[in-house]
């Protein structure tokens, strides 16, 4: 009985952290800039490659992961300046352009490094509860997901950069007229979202095979989580990851991975049918209602 | 202080403002009046830099700012209060005020929210409230208070009376006069409300069909009949 409860909790937190980490970089770029980065999966792949190559060269794995995040963040800044910047307000054009960046990345990586690369092994080993064996590393991933979320909250709610980024998404012209260099804000935000994608790729590297199409393993779940969460990356994305993670884990444990994934997609369709702006759209409407009607605390 | 020289600006191929020149001296309060749709807001946007000039030059305190982006002009000391206030509804009152700290940033100095609360004490009670939940009058105060934080040398106000009840129009006019007198802030404002123009201005320009059609002396900006003539069709 207790084993079953533990197993369910474990599966839930694995699903949750997998969805959250996959989605958060995409969510920051979408929520803060209104840009859909179709190269998100390839940015994760790039993070996984940098992490793997640097770790194989003898650098400690956590440091290699940070370098992966940093490298993809810098790459993201360059992509923003060269490509994305020219396409603000042209959603479909930016979708097509970032898709092209993604294709170049995955094909380029295939030409440069071949169809696969020797991966790094999953650190920390495993532990057992009852008859089942669990991976410590996946538990650590859950903790990292929560720490990352807390840090992002602090960055966006408590720093000057965060305030200016939130003002810029609400009204870019006014933010600029108040002295904010909005072009620089967009570069920084795109780099941050890219770095988060790179970090997720690095964190997933020990659990997956390192191939040029690494990103395709995560991209559907990442998009689904962002769509369900809505435009607010800090509030919507974690709630969406929890909700979808619960559905995925429950169905997956009971009926297998395939049904888990079907359930995840069906839940998504249901939610966006009822809440086209996602979960954070609903919360925003609730928070912005006139003060007079506010009840309770 | 501010020199606008032969400025032409507009959207696409449509020029809304044509060959406009203004010269504002330090410490003045100057009105720009005119009927709806004659290009007053377009002129303000061209001065703050949200709209590129097709022709002409703008200089602030002797330095050319014609090619400078809006953020640079704000950092050189222009505090812009747009039509419709332009507050950030999802941010709190305090966060909105904090967004004013980059104004006049080149000069530096301490930036404190007290300045805004000194002129608009009502805002202090609402500091943690989301700006989108404020009343129209409070939003008007917030928009002016926000630029005050940076101690601008020049305030651009685009229809400060918009959507306000008559007693609040009087109040906001008195507040702006106090700011001008006590902080030495130069004020250039666009307005159609005759009471506010008479209460506030030291002189004025009339804009018609995108051009300066008349300049108004102190006697004229305080003469109701003259103003009505310029503002009615």
Provide the low-confidence segments of chain B as ranges. Answer: none
Oligomer: heterodimer
- Strand content bin of chain A: under 5%
List the strand order in the largest sheet of chain A: 1-2
Poorly predicted regions of chain A are: 292-297
Shape of chain B: globular
Structural class label of chain B: alpha/beta
Helix content of chain A: over 70%
Most extensive interface, residues per chain?
A: A-B, 22 and 29 residues
Largest beta sheet of chain B: what is the strand line-up?
Answer: 6-7-8-3-9-10
Order of helices and strands of chain A: HHHHEEHHHHHHHH
Taking the sheet with the most strands of chain B, its summary is: 6 strands, mixed
Beta-strand proportion of chain B: 25-35%
> What's the structural domain tally of chain A?
1
Q: What level of helicity do the residues of chain B show?
A: 25-40%
What fold name goes in the CATH topology slot of chain A?
ABC transporter involved in vitamin B12 uptake, BtuC
Largest sheet of chain A, in brief, is: 2 strands, antiparallel
Radius of gyration of chain A (CA) equals 20 Å
What is the residue-averaged pLDDT of chain A? 90
DSSP strand count of chain A: 2
Q: What structural class should be given to the helix and strand makeup of chain A?
A: mainly alpha
Commentary on this structure:
The complex is a heterodimer of chains A (297) and B (233). Chain A is mainly α. Chain A contains twelve helices and two strands. Chain B has helices at residues 40-48, 70-75, 93-98, 114-119, 121-125, 136-148, 166-183, 194-200, 218-221, 224-231, and strands at residues 2-11, 14-24, 29-33, 53-60, 63-64, 78-81, 154-158, 186-190, 203-208, 211-216. The longest helix of chain B is centred in the C-terminal third of the chain and has 18 residues, at 166-183. Chain B has 233 residues and is an alpha/beta fold. Chain B contains ten helices and ten strands. In chain B, strands 6-7-8-3-9-10 form a six-stranded mixed β-sheet, sandwiched between helices. The two termini of chain B are 33 Å apart. Chain B is 35% helix and 27% strand. Classes of the chains: A mainly alpha (297), B alpha/beta (233). The A-B interface holds A 160, 163-164, 166-167, 170-171, 173-182, 284, 287-288, 290-291 and B 48-50, 69-71, 74-75, 80, 82, 86, 88-91, 95, 98-100, 102-103, 105, 129-130, 132-133, 146-147, 150.
